[in-house]
Amino acid sequence: MVTFKSNFNIPEKEAVEFLNIPLDGDLKAFIDPFLIANSRQEPVFNDVYRRLIDFFTKLNREFIIPNDRRNGLMFLDNLHEPNEYHLGYSDSNKGKAVSGTRAVTIFDALRNNRFSRAEGVTITNEAHNILLLVTGIGQDIMSDAISNVSRDIFARFTAEQCIKYGIITETFHRHFFNSTTGLWEMTDFNLPVYKGKCIILLPNKMVSSARSYVNHYNHFVAGNYIAKDILDGKIAVAADGSCVRTLKDGTRKAIIKRIVETYGKPKDDLIDFVLEYNGSLDLFLDHAKTHYPAIDLGDLL
Hints:
Strand content: 5-15%
Oligomer: single chain
Structural class: mainly alpha
Low-confidence stretches: none
C-alpha cells in the first residue's frame, strides 16, 4: 500500500504530526469534532474549532432560525467532496457525503432540531454538539463539512509539513470559508501532489474511526445521572432487580447496562437528557477526552 510517508520517502517508523493516509484509496476514518474541541490548547485545533463556530453560527442565525431555505441551501452547496484528504468511505460511496442533495439533508436536519431553530440557543453552534444531537448529520457528513470549511487551515498545516520534509508542492486553487468576511472564497494553496492530484494532510490526533457518540452519551448519562436518581429513589424501578442489584452487605448497585437498555434514548430524543441534566454536555466532553481518543492508524491500514 502506498502511503504518504512511503511515497515521499519519510521513514515508516519516524514519528510525524500528520495522519499517514493511503494515497490510492481512502482511510475509513473521520475528522472528529470532539477531538478538536478537546485539544484547543494546540493552535491548529483551536483555529479549526473557532472556524467551525463561526460557520455554524452563521448557518443557524442567518438561515436555519429564519427558515431561509433557498439561501441556506446555496450556502451549504459549497460543501463539495473533499477527495484530497483521502478519508471517509470508499470511492463507490463518494458523493453520498456532502453534495446538493446532502445540503438539503443538513438544512432540514438542523431546521428540525429544537436547539438549532431556537432563538438565543447556542448549543448547535458547536460541531461536536451537532454530531451528537442532530439526527441526519453523522460522522461522514460532519467530517466532510469540516474539511471544506477549514481547508485553508489544513492546507497551511500541510505546507508546513512539506517544508519540514523537503517535499515539492504545486499551486492549486481551492475554496474555504472565510470567518472574517463570512463568505466562501477561493485562494491558492501550495500542496503536495500524487498522480496529478493534490493532497491535504491532517493532524494525526484529529481523526477517529467510526464510533457512536449517541451510545457513548447514553452510557454516560445512565452511569452518572440516571443511576444516581434510581439509587436515591427519584426514579421508581421494577422490583425484579433488573436495574439494581442488592449485594450481600445490603449495598445497592446500579446495573448500568440494564439502565441504558431501559432508559436510553435515540438521537432524536437526546435533547431531553440535555435539558434534564444541566451541564451533562460539558461533562461528557471532558469524559470523551480520556475515553475516546484519536485512532491508532495501525488498526485501519
